[in-house]
Amino acid sequence: MKKFLLPSILLCAASAYAQTSSYSLNIHLKNGESVKYEVTDIDRMTFEAPEEEETPDPVETANVKVTIPTSFATGWVQKVMYDGKQVAEIDQEYVKAVDNIMIVVYPCGADGRADLTKGVSSTGASVVWDLDANAATVGEAGDDMTTFYIVDGEVLTSYDGELPEATVEADVISDRRGLFERNTYTIVKIGTQYWMAENLRTTYYLDGTSIQGVESKDTSTWSANTTGAYVKIDDTEWLKMAGYLYNGYCVTSEKEIAPEGWEVPTRDQVLKLRSAGNILATNFKDSEPGSWSNGTEGENVTGFSAIATGYYSSATGMTGELSEAYFWTSTVYSDWLFKTEGLETLRINGTSKNIAVSNEAGHSYPFGHSIRCVRK
Question: What is the Cα–Cα distance from 83 to 35, expressed in whole angstroms?
Fold first, then answer.
């Protein structure tokens, strides 16, 4: 608020009056009300005017040419960049409507995120997502395309004129915590959601507080922990593939464990994931050797890349490695009969046909499960 002093003549008059006798200042408002002040009680007077509203700068739209990458080995989600800004997104994604993997280009909106209602596939077919239904309508395919044009917020398959070439790079999560910990996670789009394509492997909460690491043989320390813990892993190659197993207290901690801009999914978000991937376990299981026991690897068409990490508990120790995987959700359940509380889970079993989401009967907090985060 800008402040302006009343005209000096008014201030001088008030001062003169105050030196002789008590005068009143009567202010009559437009709504009919009146306000009265004794001049001798007034120290100073100012006018206040509203601040001028700044006119926002118009959103600049970059018109560019983009070439589809020949490989998505660096990530299922690729950013189209020009002049330091993201102008589009290219996804290698599973689309349930066609039960197949598609390469789709989406322009970015004013918020910097992909507009999922304006997708065009590498075959020239339109891909329009209903955000509420988490389902896509796919148009008729044409010729295979390797080059697209982003013009005025739209994806075009042809353009009459010259446009600058945009660059394409993997969209990843750069997660920095503590003094030295640096983790990078690839991202995958499944339906209308964006998921980490790897399990969490941090040893710090988001606020920089360290999480207690517990040796797998130290079941007593694990049982006593109520502030958050993970099971230590000495094999660095397995850690990179599988991440850590965390107890449920890590999920519920106010210190937050998910990377900035991400969150541990709710049960509803996991159900949305399950539906978008057509519920089949093979669609979610990693296909690489060593990720599951021989013969139970998946096709991984969704890119979720689930690893059979097994689970941990103080009663059993490490159990189910290479045969199943559990993921925490943030949805709390309470068992009033046994007077226990915990979190619901997503389970993928090596021999089961479909992935399963618990229903008011997850696992209690002392279990150790993987964490996979979804973008807010």
Answer: 58
Backbone angles phi, psi at 239, to 5 degrees: -60, -45
Q: How many Cα atoms are found within 13 Å in the side-chain-facing hemisphere of 146?
A: 3
pLDDT of amino acid 336: 76
Q: Which two tokens stand for residue 244?
A: 């850590």
pLDDT band at 335 (very low <50, low <70, confident <90, very high): confident
Contact 295, 285 (CB under 8 A): no
Residue 362 tokens read as 């997850």
Residue with the two structure tokens 């989401």: 357
The β-bridge partners of 151 are 154
Which 8-state DSSP code applies to residue 39? G
What gap in Å lies between CA 170 and CA 17, rounded to an integer?
75
Q: Are 261 and 328 in contact (CB under 8 A)?
A: no
* Cα atoms in the Cβ-side hemisphere of radius 13 Å centred on 219: 9
Beta bridge partners of 184: 174
> In which band, very low, low, confident or very high, does the pLDDT at 1 lie, cut at 50, 70 and 90?
very low
Q: Which residues pair with 284 in a beta bridge?
A: none
In this structure, are residues 127 and 117 in contact, taking their beta carbons and an 8 Å threshold?
A: no
Instruction: Give pTM, 2 decimals.
Output: 0.83
Instruction: Please say whether the beta carbons of 365 and 343 come within 8 A.
Output: yes
What's the pLDDT band for 280 if we cut at 50, 70, 90?
very high
The 10 Å Cβ neighbour count of residue 1 is 7
**Mean predicted confidence (pLDDT) in 330-356:** 92
Q: What is the pLDDT of residues 229-269, one digit of tens each?
A: 999 999 999 999 999 999 999 999 999 999 999 999 999 99
DSSP 8-state secondary structure symbol assigned to residue 180? T
